[in-house]
Specification:
The protein is an alpha+beta fold and 179 residues long. The chain has one domain (10-175). It has five helices and three strands. It has a three-stranded antiparallel sheet, covered by helices on one side.
């Protein structure tokens, strides 16, 4: 996958630097304190918002980790999808599903191939549940354009993948007594 200059210096990203267009950033120095399990997705340290069920983005990451599959992966990336890289090709459908749960906006990091990598901004909370697909490469979340589901879901296959992931998540929530 060819990625252009869509990445920032790793040190700047680690400090939580954000651009004005993508909303403010409030990364603190909390780390893994308080017994919190460390996650690999961008913004996990401050993803403390809760939905009407009382769940945080970290909770949804755990649930979605069991649901992401080759079937929910973007077709152009399916041959590279694996359980070891389960977030590959899941960004837009995941970001719009998370938007359903928390509100906020979906933004997209421009990639060198003309596509966008989607992530969520809810108030001051910025997080990207599918950032791990890029390995150790740090995305530049500054000055990113807003992404609209109306545009993304003009692709029927993407809308169907989103609906399948949403149905699977709601079923899992019902199983867990959280629906």
């Amino acid at each position: 996958m060819r990625i252009s200059a869509a990445y920032e210096n790793e040190k700047e990203n680690a400090r939580g630097r954000r651009g004005e267009n993508c909303g403010p950033q409030t990364h603190g120095e909390r780390g893994c304190g308080g017994g919190a399990k460390p996650y690999g997705f961008y913004g996990w340290e401050t993803a403390d918002i809760r939905d009407e069920r009382g769940l945080t983005p970290r909770d949804y990451y755990d649930l979605l980790s069991e649901l992401w599959s080759a079937d929910t992966c973007a077709p152009r990336m399916r041959s590279d999808w694996s359980p070891e890289n389960k977030t590959l090709g899941q960004c837009s459908i995941t970001a719009f599903l998370i938007q359903d749960l928390y509100g906020g906006k979906v933004y997209g990091v421009p990639l060198g191939d003309g596509n966008f990598h989607c992530f969520n901004v809810v108030g001051d909370c910025v997080f990207d549940l599918t950032s791990e697909q890029f390995g150790g490469v740090r995305l530049n979340y500054a000055d990113c354009p807003e992404q609209l589901r109306e545009t993304h879901f003009t692709k029927e296959e993407k809308r169907l993948r989103y609906e399948a992931l949403k149905a699977a998540l709601l079923a899992r929530l019902r199983e867990n007594g959280s629906a």
